[in-house]
Each structure stands twice: as structure tokens, then as C-alpha cells.
């Protein structure tokens, strides 16, 4: 039976990449050991590290004045690294709240300095969840930066526009990076935990404009210091080498797929298919206004909550894994990142139809 893994993260990785990693695992490049077991400073690992960075730069067309950092600590590590590096002792930062991850980022930043939270969540008269568009955000003139999370993994809310502001925009792209083209120069800094669209957990990507590297204002742990990390090409301490290697395989795979523009077409097609099905159904529903629906994380609810555990159980029995919604939201969630083929979404929809027929 073919299985499809809808987990929000750690998430499904491309099957071709997993096969390559499996083939290379024990005897990587004829070294007689695995890539996990070689020095990060060895020429062969350095070549892996450099190729991964170059491929990422090509995929996202990262301008030369941006550094790419391969860090530890996941998304939450960045929730503290961002204010530690960028929030001045007397300054303030604007945190735009569109869901639970941006809320968590704001709470963490408030430990280190002054934070203005702008809650942009709203409900339409028909009950659908929506958010204010960027032009409506009331940003403060004195903020050191504006933090936002363009794709909220738990809430299933995504926005693509950004506000017009002179302030650096800091974006948590953990669950949407590489899913569609973006203009890097619109951002001061982007970060993303690897475990959704990049590779295994344990690696965190940071893409930062180099003028922001001189702003660490206080005592800061070495492994969270952007400037230090950049000065040492992300090797001040031992980086998560296996995750870095695997990310490199994913970047290579993405290039072979045709890059992020092709991924965007595929991701839109998958999302349209699933939302289209949900919208015509009385048995299932998604409650996000169409223009803010996430391409990556699709929460949905059964009309009868009492069927939730049976749905999850039977889905698993049919090879459709990890559909249970986030505990704070309930219902179901299908995460359909880059590695999920359209066949996975088709299989999910035919299971949902069948489940409706036998329980509707
Ligand atoms: N930001 C977003 C958008 C996320 O989806 C997550 C995790 N799902 C995090 C931050 C936290 O990441 P981590 O668990 O790597 O700290």
C-alpha cells in the first residue's frame, strides 16, 4: 500500500531524496563511513555545505548582500535569536499576530525587550476567519523591525503581500519557504525550521541582509549570534551536519523539479483540489476566508466531531498518516508541503468521499 504522510512537521520528505540518503548512508562517497561521521571541516563535507548554500541561493535568487546561515534550535530558537540580535535595549519591535506561531514569537521576544503586538485576526460576518491585509496594519514609527509569520501552520492562514515600510521585515517562513517564489529583498531576515520543506529537524535556515549583522546589543549566546555565525560560515560550533547534507539533497531535488516557480504551480493545484472538495461538501468544512487559505496546511472539520477518531483511524488504515488536527484547534489538518505529490491529495479526497458515504 502506498502511504502518504500529512504530518505538519517533521514532515514527509521527497521519496527520491530518502532513497538516495539510504543508498549513501553506510558508505558515503566511498569514505567507508556515513556523512554523519565525518568532520564538518573535512573538504568533502565543506563541499556538501557549499553546494547546499549555492543551490538554495539559486532557488530563491538570494542577492549577494544576504548571508545564509545554517543554525540550530528550530523556529523557537529564532523566536529569541531575532530580538537578541535585532532589538535595541531602548527599542521596540512590532509583532504582527496572525495565528499561534506569531503569537508565540511575540511572547518570547517580550522577554528581551519592548514588543507591540498587532493582532490582525478577524472574523467575517459569515463566520470565516480572515486577517487584515498588510496595508491596514498599524505599524509604529519607532519599531526596530516588524515580525510576521506569512504562513501559520496551526491556523492554516497564509498571506503573500507585505506592508510598505522602511523597517526591516523579519519573517518566520518555517512552513512556507520554497513553496513559491518570494522576493528576498523585501525582507530584512527570513528564518525557517527545516522540518517541513527543507529536511530533518535540527537545522534552521536564516537568510539575513548583511547590514543587520552589526546590531547585537547585549550579551548573546554564541550559537544565537548572527554575526558570529556568519563570520564562521555557520561552523563556529559543530553544525547539524546530517540535516545540512539532507537539506542539500532536497535543494538539488527542487532544482530538478524545475525550482520554486514549478513548485508553486504544483502546490496551488494541490491546494485548489483539496479546498474545492471541502467547499462543495456538507460533511467537511474549512473555515478560513479563501484569499488567506494556506497552500501548505489545510485544517478541516467534520460536521460531526464525534467521528474524528474513527476518521483518523480509518485514514491511517488506508495509508493516510497524521491527519489529526493540532490539539489547540481540533478537527483534522492535511499538511501538503513540496514533497507531497498530487496523488497524495487525490488519495485523501477519495478516502474522504468513501468515509462520507459510509458515515454521512
Ligand atoms: N514557526 C512556525 C511557523 C512553525 O510551524 C513552527 C513549528 N511547527 C515553529 C515556528 C516552531 O518550530 P520549532 O519546533 O522548530 O521550534
Automatic annotation (TrEMBL):
UniProt keyword annotations, A-Z: Amino-acid biosynthesis, Aminotransferase, Cytoplasm, Pyridoxal phosphate, Pyridoxine biosynthesis, Serine biosynthesis, Transferase
Superkingdom per UniProt: Bacteria
Protein residues bound to pyridoxal 5'-phosphate: 75-76, 101, 153, 172, 195, 237-238
Q: Which InterPro entries match?
A: Aminotrans_V_dom, Aminotrans_V_PyrdxlP_BS, Pser_aminoTfrase, PyrdxlP-dep_Trfase, PyrdxlP-dep_Trfase_major, PyrdxlP-dep_Trfase_small
- List, in alphabetical order, the Gene Ontology terms for molecular function in this entry: O-phospho-L-serine:2-oxoglutarate aminotransferase activity
* Chain residues that bind L-glutamate: 41
- What is catalyzed by this enzyme? 4-(phosphooxy)-L-threonine + 2-oxoglutarate = (R)-3-hydroxy-2-oxo-4-phosphooxybutanoate + L-glutamate; O-phospho-L-serine + 2-oxoglutarate = 3-phosphooxypyruvate + L-glutamate
User: What is its biological role?
Assistant: Catalyzes the reversible conversion of 3-phosphohydroxypyruvate to phosphoserine and of 3-hydroxy-2-oxo-4-phosphonooxybutanoate to phosphohydroxythreonine.
Name recorded for this polypeptide? Phosphoserine aminotransferase
Which organism does this record belong to? Alkalimonas collagenimarina
Taxonomic placement: Bacteria, Pseudomonadati, Pseudomonadota, Gammaproteobacteria, Alkalimonas
Amino acid at each position: 500500500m502506498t502511504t502518504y504522510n500529512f504530518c505538519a512537521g517533521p514532515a514527509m520528505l521527497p521519496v527520491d531524496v530518502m532513497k538516495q540518503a539510504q543508498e549513501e548512508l553506510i558508505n558515503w562517497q566511498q569514505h567507508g563511513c556515513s556523512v554523519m561521521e565525518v568532520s564538518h571541516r573535512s573538504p568533502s563535507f565543506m563541499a556538501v555545505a557549499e553546494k547546499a548554500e549555492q543551490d538554495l541561493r539559486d532557488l530563491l535568487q538570494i542577492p549577494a548582500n544576504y548571508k545564509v546561515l545554517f543554525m540550530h534550535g528550530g523556529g523557537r530558537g529564532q523566536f529569541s535569536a531575532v530580538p537578541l540580535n535585532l532589538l535595541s535595549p531602548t527599542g521596540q519591535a512590532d509583532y504582527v499576530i496572525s495565528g499561534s506561531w506569531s503569537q508565540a514569537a511575540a511572547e518570547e521576544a517580550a522577554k528581551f525587550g519592548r514588543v507591540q503586538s498587532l493582532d490582525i485576526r478577524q472574523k467575517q460576518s459569515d463566520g470565516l476567519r480572515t486577517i487584515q491585509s498588510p496595508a491596514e496594519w498599524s505599524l509604529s514609527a519607532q519599531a526596530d523591525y516588524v515580525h510576521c509569520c506569512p504562513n501559520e501552520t496551526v491556523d492554516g492562514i497564509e498571506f503573500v503581500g507585505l506592508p510598505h515600510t522602511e523597517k526591516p521585515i523579519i519573517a518566520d517562513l518555517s512552513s512556507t519557504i520554497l513553496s513559491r517564489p518570494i522576493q528576498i529583498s523585501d525582507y530584512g531576515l527570513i528564518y525557517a525550521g527545516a522540518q517541513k520543506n527543507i529536511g530533518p529537524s535540527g537545522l534552521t535556515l536564516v537568510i539575513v541582509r548583511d547590514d543587520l549583522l552589526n546590531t547585537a546589543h547585549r550579551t548573546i549566546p554564541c550559537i544565537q549570534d548572527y554575526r558570529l555565525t556568519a563570520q564562521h560560515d555557520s561552523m563556529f560550533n559543530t553544525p547539524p551536519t546530517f540535516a545540512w547534507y539532507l537539506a542539500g539533497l532536497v535543494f538539488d531535488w527542487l532544482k530538478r523539479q524545475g525550482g520554486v516557480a514549478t513548485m508553486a504551480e504544483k502546490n496551488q493545484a494541490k491546494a485548489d483540489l483539496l479546498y474545492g472538495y471541502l467547499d462543495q461538501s456538507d460533511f467537511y468544512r474549512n473555515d478560513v476566508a479563501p484569499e488567506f487559505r494556506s497552500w501548505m496546511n489545510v485544517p478541516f472539520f467534520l460536521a460531526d466531531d464525534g467521528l474524528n477518531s474513527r476518521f483518523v483511524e480509518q485514514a491511517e488504515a488506508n495509508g493516510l498518516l497524521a491527519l489529526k488536527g493540532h490539539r489547540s484547534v481540533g478537527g483534522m489538518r492535511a499538511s501538503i508541503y513540496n514533497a507531497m505529490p498530487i496523488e497524495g491529495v487525490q488519495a485523501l479526497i477519495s478516502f474522504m468521499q468513501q468515509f462520507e458515504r459510509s458515515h454521512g
